[in-house]
């Protein structure tokens, strides 16, 4: 592609760089996007998260997110995912 130098002027995600080097349409459906790798929150998980937040928000001197992560029934959620979901809710 003779105009590929123009693409180098802008910041790229790792997925976009992979496509530029390996050829466009080289990524399979859903690959390279963060959203596809993160499982969505179910209504039951959201309810449990809400209850845990209200339970631990009044605890003095403690890290609320660490307490929530320790008592979350679904393992595998990261601190960032929990914080992002709490902000969204």
From TrEMBL:
Any Pfam family matching the protein: HTH_TIMELESS
A single MF term (Gene Ontology): DNA binding
UniProt xrefs under InterPro entries: Timeless (IPR044998)
GO biological process, one term: DNA replication checkpoint signaling
One Gene Ontology CC term in the entry: replication fork protection complex
UniProt-recorded name of the protein: TIM protein
Organism whose genome encodes this protein: Hylia prasina
Gene that encodes the chain: Timeless_1
